[in-house]
């Protein structure tokens, strides 16, 4: 049996949903994402970030709008990629969505996990990217100077010869699919 593109997309979407990631179409009216310092060009739909950027998740409450999730990123010369320096989500299942946007903003330079400390929730997201996401590629970090919260090992393998999630530079291979979907739904804004 041969699958059509739409059937394959539906299967993949169901897998993602079963893993608990909130998709753009599931964001309620009270949520929006703001990308700060991304250098996003509306005409070309491409990012051109400077040395640092942020992806913020906001939620409207009765008394105003508040940040409930954030991924702060800076360019790391030692890793030759963008590096997460702060990441959190106050609401379960929203973190992977803002991580996806952060990877899209990083573009060809790629994104590496925080080199100092990573929560178990974040570790699970990185493992999922490495092992199960067809649209996210990963290449081994080439510099031992980059460091890692779990120790640096050549070729992305850990001391047991397994591929460790923390020793990779992650890239979105399909352009900016989350940003495109969020734009279509009017759920993303750009500042700076």
Structure description:
The protein has 192 residues and is of the alpha/beta class. It is 25% helix and 28% strand. The protein contains four helices and eight strands. It has helices at 5-19, 95-106, 120-132, 177-184; strands at 31-36, 52-61, 64-76, 81-89, 111-112, 136-140, 168-172, 188-191. The strands form two sheets. The protein has a six-stranded mixed sheet. It is globular, with a radius of gyration of 17 Å. 36% of the residues are buried. The mean pLDDT is 85.
Strand content: 25-35%
Order of helices and strands: HEEEEHEHEEHE
What is the oligomeric state here?
single chain
**Alpha-carbon Rg, integer:** 17 Å
Amino- and carboxy-terminal Cα gap:
49 Å
Helix content: 25-40%
Label the structural class.
alpha/beta
User: Shape, please?
Assistant: globular
Number of helices: 4
Number of strands: 8
**Biggest sheet architecture:** 6 strands, mixed
User: Which parts are unreliable, with pLDDT below 50 for 5 consecutive residues or more?
Assistant: none
Spatially, the strands of the biggest sheet line up as 5-4-3-2-1-8
């Amino acid at each position: 049996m041969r699958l059509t593109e739409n059937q394959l997309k539906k299967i993949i979407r169901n897998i993602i949903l079963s893993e608990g990631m909130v998709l753009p179409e599931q964001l309620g009216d009270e949520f929006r994402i703001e990308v700060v310092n991304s250098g996003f060009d509306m005409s070309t739909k491409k990012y051109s970030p400077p040395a640092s950027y942020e992806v913020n998740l906001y939620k409207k409450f009765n008394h105003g709008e508040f940040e409930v999730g954030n991924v702060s990123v800076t360019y790391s010369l030692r890793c030759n990629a963008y590096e997460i320096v702060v990441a959190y989500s106050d609401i379960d299942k929203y973190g992977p969505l803002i991580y996806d946007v952060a990877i899209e903003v990083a573009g060809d330079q790629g994104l590496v996990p925080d080199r100092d400390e990573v929560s178990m929730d974040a570790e699970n997201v990185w493992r999922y990217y490495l092992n199960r996401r067809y649209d996210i590629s990963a290449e081994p970090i080439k510099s031992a100077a980059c460091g890692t919260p779990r120790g640096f090992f050549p070729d992305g393998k850990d001391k047991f010869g397994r591929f460790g999630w923390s020793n990779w530079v992650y890239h979105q291979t399909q352009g900016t699919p989350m940003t495109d979907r969020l734009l279509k739904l009017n759920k993303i804004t750009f500042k700076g």
